[in-house]
Amino acid sequence: MNNLPREKQIEVIAALCEGVGIRTAARLTGVNRDTVGNLALRVGLGCMELHDRIMVGVRTERLELDEAWSFVGKKQKNVRRHEVHAMGHQDIFISMAGTQKAIVSWGVGKRNMESTMETSCMISVVA
Questions:
Q1: What's this model's pTM, rounded to 2 decimal places?
Q2: Quick one: which of 17, 11, 6, 82 has its CA closest to 47?
Q3: 96 in a domain, yes or no?
């Protein structure tokens, strides 16, 4: 169970929201790296649940689609065969309501046909 005081939790999440990594957030706040990771995961899951409950019935005339590249866990050259789907190069696919600037749907995965089709299906359900 997490016994981290609420003020310290807010400090950790604020550091992560500023764009620093987990190791840096741990160093800046004096919190264990695993605790920072677990807190980030719990907050992220809560945000995902809240997003899915609130973003229902959004009407828009225009969807803007974008993607951002990143790597997860390790660089692609260091990824082993059994890790290929979860680590290395990953893309974040985002569909945003054009005028409201609200993220309507999103997905994370490799830049391949499977991830593209999965994300397209999510977007078509939204649209």
A1: 0.66
A2: 17
A3: yes
11-15, 18-22, 56-60: the lowest-pLDDT one: 56-60
Domain carrying residue 114: 63-126
Task: In whole angstroms, give the CA distance from residue 47 to residue 53.
Answer: 10
Together in a domain, 39 and 91: no
| Cα–Cα distance, 6 to 11 (Å, whole number) | 9
The answer to whether residue 38 sits within a structural domain is yes
Q: What is the pLDDT of residues 28-68, one digit of tens each?
A: 999 999 999 999 999 999 998 998 888 888 788 888 888 88
CB 104 within 8 A of CB 96: yes
- Give, in order, the Cα–Cα distances in Å from 121 to each of 22, 37, 105: 32, 30, 10
Q: Is residue 1 part of a domain?
A: no
108, 90 Cβ separation under 8 angstroms: yes
DSSP single-letter state for residue 83: G
